[in-house]
Every structure is written in structure tokens, then in C-alpha cells.
Design brief:
single chain, 106 residues, alpha+beta, 3-stranded mixed β-sheet, 2 helices, 12% strand, elongated
Length: 106
């Protein structure tokens, strides 16, 4: 469900203060935040925001295409390591099975 236009986009107050201070001082250091729910505003463009993914802070360089999205969309929380079925199918094929070519006769 979308947020009403009357309310405007949601940004945590502490994050907005940090962004305003960084843009006023032309500071390029990453801004650390735990606020994954905050919406990216046009004021954020050109800044690097380190978004927490539950384990570490992931640096996200904000571009114009990201405006309107949430910060959490760019700091993934899960690491995909492949499907177990794929490994089961690949193991016998790579195993030491003899090839289909007949053995040479002497």
C-alpha cells in the first residue's frame, strides 16, 4: 500500500539531519544508518549512505534512478548460495564416469 501524497515520503529525522549536514559541508564520507525504511529523496543524490543489513553496513552510492525507493532495497539481507538440487545434478556428471566413446581396438 502506498503512502498518501498529503503526508509525503517518510525519512527518519536523524537521517535527514545527517544528510543536510553532509550536503552543507560538501562532505563525501559515508553516512551510517540503520533506517532501511527511509525513502530516498532528491537531496540524497551524490551521497554515499552506509545501510545496515543486519550484519554490516553496506555502502550505497545514491543516483537519480534510486529516488523514490527505500534504502533497504539496496542493502540485501540474505546471501544466496545456490540450490541444493543443482549441486546434486552437477556432481555425477563431473564425476569419473566413462565417456560414451568405445575403447580403441588393438
Amino acid at each position: 500500500m502506498a503512502r498518501s501524497i498529503k503526508k509525503g515520503p517518510f525519512v527518519d529525522g536523524h537521517l535527514m539531519k545527517k544528510v543536510e549536514a553532509a550536503s552543507a559541508a560538501k562532505d563525501k564520507r559515508p553516512i551510517k544508518t540503520w533506517s532501511r525504511r527511509s525513502t530516498i529523496l532528491p537531496d540524497f543524490v551524490g551521497l554515499t549512505i552506509a545501510v545496515h543489513n543486519g550484519k554490516q553496513h553496506i555502502p550505497v552510492y545514491v543516483t537519480e534512478n534510486m529516488v523514490g525507493h527505500k534504502l533497504g532495497e539496496f542493502a540485501l539481507t540474505r546471501t544466496f548460495k545456490g540450490h541444493s538440487a543443482d549441486r546434486k545434478v552437477a556432481a555425477p556428471a563431473a564425476g569419473g564416469t566413462p565417456s560414451a566413446a568405445p575403447a580403441p581396438k588393438k
